[in-house]
Design goal:
By secondary structure, chain A is an alpha/beta fold. Helix content of chain A is 40%, strand content 16%. In chain A, the strands form 5 sheets. Chain A has a 7-stranded mixed beta sheet with strand order 4-10-9-8-7-5-6, with helices on both faces. In chain A, strands 13-14-17-16 form a 4-stranded antiparallel beta sheet, covered by helices on one side. In chain A, strands 1-2 form a two-stranded antiparallel sheet. Helices cover 44% and strands 18% of the residues of chain B. Chain B has a 3-stranded antiparallel beta sheet with strand order 1-2-3, with helices on one face. The chains are: A alpha/beta (424), B alpha+beta (151).
Chain lengths: 424, 151
Amino acid sequence: MSQRANDPMAAARPESGAPDYDVERIRRDFPILHQEVRGHPLVYLDNAATTQKPSPVIDAVKAYYERDNANIHRGVHTLSERATRAYEDARVKVQHFVNAADPGEIVFVRGATEAINLVAHSYGRTHIGAGDEIILTQMEHHSNIVPWQLLCEQTGARLKVVPVNDAGELLLEEFEKLLGPRTKLVAVSHMSNALGTINPVERIIAMAHAFHVPVLLDGAQAVSHLEVDVQRLDCDFYAFSGHKVYGPTGIGVLYAKRDLLDAMPPYQGGGDMISRVTFDETAYSKVPQKFEAGTPNIAGAVGLGAALDYVGGVGLARIQAYEQKVLAYACDAVGQAPGVRLVGTAGQRASVLSFVIEGVHPHDIGTILDSEGVAIRAGHHCAMPLMDRFGVPATARASFGIYNTCDEVDTLVKAMHKIKEIFG
Amino acid sequence: MSDLRELYQEVIVDHNRKPRNFRENAAATRKVEGYNPLCGDKLTLFLQLEDGVIKDVSFVGTGCAILVASASLMTEALKGKTEAQAKAVFEDFHNLVTGDTGDPMASADQLGKLAIFAGVREFPTRVKCATLAWHTLQAALKDDAQVVSTE
């Protein structure tokens, strides 16, 4: 540690008590962080998989079930009115969080995966046919690959894949070559879950729109780390999960431009998505209810609304500035450990540190770190094509959130010494 | 740390670094693949049976230390065993790391050197690593060519 402290090139260490970011106060809001794992204080560095929940989120879900629970939209009684208001208020919170023009552009789903499947089914089957092309990238999560493969199997469309360079950055000149008259959709992650790369989505969207091609952004990773303004981005679809932005599991969001949603057929049929049903024909509700068949995850939406309030309260600009400092500190500290190779060194990246250690499988790294109370992820991160690109079966991944500190990075690095002790 | 030392005993670290019988075998009578897709752990097992006796058993593949060491030690333990003996060792090994079918320590007594895998029982997420090679062996003994998984 002292070596780095004396190194003028070492990344600046953000102090816990920095006036613009009180991380200790944030940590106090997350009850789960205050426990021991295998006899050591928990250091939770698996935020790219799921984030922990602050008390306001837990309390909002609890209060909803204790006070307001009822089914929504059709009830005339007081509890149903309250539940409906809570659910629709959450929709407006999401609208403001991503700066959508209209709450009707916000569809509640189970998560980013369902949001992408919804677009593949509803938009895909009506707009994409045999010989058409869908452009993805080499760094996509399986959830932004497999729905499109299924669509291709059903329609005869084809996937085209934008490669990445050795740093884990998209090759935009290759993207440009793939765009053409057959391109019907571009689906790209805003931020890579495996490498942390932040993609130049504004440029990608502008390039695609020049060919009148709509763009879906998989925002599952980005939404807790970057400010998202769907109108400024001008993306056509934006998908994210509540549980990766400090909200509950089982709730997520599909944002889509209103004109696209209006023209899209329903994804699933059932209650709550119809205006009139006879056995001869059914008239559908307007958006967004048209895409929300059945009783939704009302408590989840309420919890997500509370999570977005919480994140908004801290402020994404401040979160981003703080997390960048922690990431830089971690890259410096972990990158200097013996035998470590960082996987993914893009110029623009956030909160994800993927690495391999010569001669030690990532699962063994994960188990050894866990024995020191440090939770990281080891595996292919649901991005097997990307692992193939980098010639590794798996990586170890430490991923950071709003409550992580440089002290925790130090604990990670100290725990990594145990790997050397055991594997030599 | 003591649990961890139990898991990563020196013999395991050694067999991971220098796996024994780590090779293909063109004379194998049975060849079966084991694959844990969530982990990415992968091995191919080559079993050479002659008159009901394991004349040779070897493997190739990639994975964590627990997988590689368990495959390596398994191949050492099984050469020269009959099919019935190999099945009995499988049962004992499985019980040692899961405790599913009896007292793990009784199994440990039967297993000799393989008993060093007893530490895996304290790490439930790693049981699938320790058992992949063994389940692949079981499939090979049954002459079942399907890809084996312990996930």
